[in-house]
Amino acid sequence: MIGCGAGAGLAAVYNVPLGGAVFTLEVLFCTYSWPILLPAFITSAIATLVSWWGLGIEAIYHVPDLELSASIITWAIITSPLFGFAAYWFIRIANIQRSKAMRDKKMILAALLNFIVIGLLAIYFPVLLGNGKSMVQMEFTDKVGITISTLLLGLRCIICWSSLRVGAQGGLLTPSLANGALLAALLGGIWNHFWPVIPFSGFIAIGATSFLAAAQKMPLTSIILIFEFTHIPFDFLVPIMLSVAGALLTSTFCDNYFPKQK
Asked: How far apart are CA 36 and CA 253, in angstroms?
């Protein structure tokens, strides 16, 4: 009941009925058995239906028209290990900071300083605030450039890690999606200097999905979420699946290659 409620909440907030149900199955219970599948599907569908009364039936992200090309498929394959590698280290460092989070009186002062710094940064980069939704939308609709995307990616990682270290609580689903979008903008911008691809937003959809899949270890959920988030053409299943596979292979390799601290 608790797991289905969590998946239904995700489904209702983001208008992702199938994504919410598969999140319950793949991430929370790691099973597709009928006793879990049926209530997960029913609760996510009902929650989404109810949310339509107040939130409407719209995609979370508005994406320009996309057209599949051989160039973007090639890019998806070549860059997939980079998304897996980056996702692995983002989550690993986040888990370290979470495990060492402050719990004593020092937490009060540290939290104040941390969020004062974030507020100051937000004066110049307002998209840093929130869970990353506005940052993903920005990358889908505006070509902010390689330099700004790289800067935002670095700042975004640092403030996520520092917030966890001072005791902040919260998941990393949408932050992972945002980091993937920023990294995709960086890698896509470099690619476009040599092999132009139009439209640019295709990079963002592929990269954001791959980073999220590798970071949260939920390939099916990530793929379903990006299509429900954006309503992009199903032709993009091919490059997205190839990129997710490469990112997961790289992340798994990193899990085995880099020893964990005890």
From this structure: 31
Q: How far apart are CA 95 and CA 195, in angstroms?
A: 37
CB 72 within 8 A of CB 202: yes
- Between the alpha carbon of residue 200 and those of residues 21, 50, 247, the distances in Å are 30, 35, 20
Compute CA distances 170 → 161, 174, 175, 186, whole Å: 12, 10, 10, 27
Distance CA 23, CA 39 (A): 13
- Quick check: pTM over 0.90? yes
**Phi, psi dihedrals of residue 31, rounded to the nearest 5°:** -155, 155
Task: Please tell me the distance from the alpha carbon of residue 66 to that of residue 2, in angstroms, as a whole number.
Answer: 38
Strands of the chain (E only): list them. Answer: none
Distances (CA, A) of 245 to 30, 94, 156: 18, 23, 25
d(CA 244, CA 203): 13
Q: Rounded to whole angstroms, how far apart are CA atoms 207 and 2?
A: 31
Q: Token pair of 200, please?
A: 């640019």
pLDDT in tens, the chain (262 residues): 898 999 999 999 999 999 999 999 998 888 888 888 999 999 999 999 999 998 888 888 989 888 888 999 999 999 999 999 999 999 999 999 999 998 888 899 999 999 999 999 999 999 999 888 888 988 888 778 889 999 999 999 999 999 999 998 888 889 999 999 999 999 999 998 888 776 788 999 999 999 999 999 999 999 999 999 999 999 999 999 999 999 999 999 999 988 776 5
Q: Are 245 and 80 in contact (CB under 8 A)?
A: yes
